[in-house]
Amino acid sequence: MGTLGFWRLAQADPDWIAAVDPDGTEHRAGDLLARSNQLVHGLRELGLRPGDGFSALVPNGADGLVFYLAALQAGWYYTPINWHLTGPEIAYIVADSEAKAFLVHPRHAVEGARGAEALAPERRFALPGGDVPGFRPIGDLIDGRPETTPPDRTAGATMHYTSGTTGKPKGVRRQLSGLDPDDSAELMTFLLGLFGITPGQPNAHLVTSPNYHTAVTQFGGTALHMGHTIVFTDKWDAEEMLRLCERYRITNSHMVPTHFKRLLALPEETRHAYDLSSLKWMIHAAAPCPVPVKWAMFEWWGDCVYEYYAATEGGGTLATPEGWKSHPGTVGSAWPISELLIVDDAGEPVPTGTAGTIYMKMLGATFEYKGDPAKTQASRLKDYFTVGDIGYLDEDGFLFLCDRKADMIISGGANIYPAEIENELMVHPKVADVAVFGIPDEEWGEQIKAVVEPAEGVEPGPDLVDELLASLEGRLARMKWPKTIDFIEEMPREPNGKLLKRKLRAPYWEGHDRAI
């Protein structure tokens, strides 16, 4: 151990540009180091001890990075909160995470103030840039505190809340390792090492999604610990992404298939107006990627597109460009430190090529859903866990996803996977986005409904319905065709690309006893 980890790197080279805010402000590593040290001293004075936690409601940028770096060297849990939530939802996470301090950016002052009620006023802090009533300025925590390395450092962790399709979100809490923070950070870099990512400059990582998501924090934070420059975006835009890739010579990023679809929809001349020769490891996950979309990305960007499948809880697979091209549609094979198990409803392993529930485990990783031993137990099978996805392994050990168990449609007794139908519709040039789910059907139990967001300038209506259905001819069994197609102006997605299917599905199930 001894060459990686942000704090070591920043001491060795304080002038390296470690972060770039969405407005273009550049931050030296030495400045981020000083601010994170001051925050540790300030929060310790407030009474925080190893094992305690704090939460924050902040946009993408260096501020959140400072909070993350403070927690990771003081043995605290840091919980970044989704800024799309309402006051009561924020209050639930602040209370449930047992936050001993809550930091809010003025941009999120209204809901942030509503969400802070569980916490004593002296534990609430507002970032500069506007008034947040009932909050102390963050200067009270950091001004005048030493910029020197705090004594008794010990590794902390992030505790993210999973969005969950049902019930309240749950915090995924890992046991603290007790390691030296730099050694712990160096161990974290194993994840990016799996993709072949190398440390040091001139590497730059582009953050394309909100930092309150596990993977976004994980990949961005780990790139920082490898000495990369982290470039933040405020709101994702296809052409802006290409501009940033050229401007900052981006080498790696973390994306979702919706991003690919929107990039490919740009006019040909726009797509080729930017120099993307720096791209080396453009990693995607979070949703199945239609095979033709991925081939199109390889044609445009070359062999720099990597895919993985994993969960906040730990464990996963990796598809390298070579692995995917020899097994199109796969999400990859198990990481060296991870194992996969596919089982039937009785928990028994199924044969190769047979779909079942995907269970995973990761060497040395244990977690619990905070305050919910029943949910933790329900997701486990021996020392494996599941998030309820369905898939199968081929004879080479490559995993193929079918769908989430909760999204499966049971029509006339047959199991139908919406993801398969979505992938076929998604490749149509007139479709910007699509969701497929089951709605009540007196005769069949459920019928297949598609909701489509038409591409820009495309007129929704019966003609488009006919055209979309006709495009499925010979590509999808008729029993899998949507019975009806509705149109929507904009698909409800979280900014990390996760589709909020329950929002679309709910109106169709009103007054029925079974809502999936």
Automatic annotation (TrEMBL):
Region feature (Disordered): 137-174
UniProt domain AMP-binding enzyme C-terminal: residue ranges: 420-498
One GO MF term attached to the UniProt entry: medium-chain fatty acid-CoA ligase activity
Coiled coil location: none
Keyword Ligase: yes
PROSITE patterns: AMP_BINDING
Segments forming domain AMP-dependent synthetase/ligase: 7-361
Source domain of life: Bacteria
Transmembrane segments: none
Pfam families: AMP-binding, AMP-binding_C
GO biological process, one term: fatty acid metabolic process
Gene3D superfamilies: 3.30.300.30, N-terminal domain of ligase-like
Keywords: Ligase
Protein name per the record: Acyl-CoA ligase
